[in-house]
Amino acid sequence: MVAWLNGLVTQPSAHLKNILSEIHRRHQSGQKSLVVFDLDSTLFDVSPRIQKILQDFSQDKTHRAQFPESCQILESIEMWKQDWGFKDALARAGLGDHHPDFHLAVKNFWSKTFFTNEYLEYDMPYDGACEYVQAVQAAGADISYLTGRDIPRMGPGSLSVLKKWKFPVGEEQAQLVLKPQKEMDDAQFKVDYFSPALKKQFSKIWFFENEPVNIDLVRKVHPDIEVVFFDSTHSGLSQAPLDLPTIMHYLLEE
Ligand SMILES: [Mg+2]
Questions:
Q1: pTM value?
Q2: 117-133, pLDDT tens digit by residue?
Q3: Which of 21, 62, 125, 157 is deepest in the core (most CB within 10 A)?
Q4: DSSP collapsed to 3 states, 146-176
């Protein structure tokens, strides 16, 4: 995997280091930088969250009575990091063309649980993520975690998981930014976050994101922001960008 940087092919680790150097250089000359990270599938692998949800579905008495064989299979289901949602994992387990009642029940349970504080603790940071964000702060940049999660359902859980993994958060220079209401469009929310007032404070802004829909809109409205594509998994509603620096981890040595 390579990253593109100013037309040159570079390793992801080299690109990550270049960003740190540039932050440091700007900091030394009194210029402020901001590095903005998405959470789901950018800093955190959410597949363990989904796996736990499917296992809890299988342990529910009502579900076991209604779908005994499928629940038994779900008990040992394995998510892959590149899975988007739960459908691929069900298909691999032989539950792909299963009856619609089962799929609907799983979908309803997933919808009730995935967007909750309670299940966020199962998320795992990608390799090197905590250390890299700490290094970004140490180099002198401000940090924002900009997420499509919403405050009412996922605010406290998001904060506590960031703290648990020792991501810098909860101070003016490291802010967690969630949607006030769940109904808001993720891409528009992220575009609006980069307001003229915010942009005026910083000489340079980087934005790490996995979802091409969000990347497309941010690039269109804010061409001055440098986007880094985190190539994990995404909705498939838009094509993955081919002309951006691309990383799959945050390790500075490969
Ligand atoms: Mg994401």
A1: 0.93
A2: 999 999 999 999 999 99
A3: 125
A4: EEEEEHHHHHHHHHHHHHHCCCCCCECCEEE
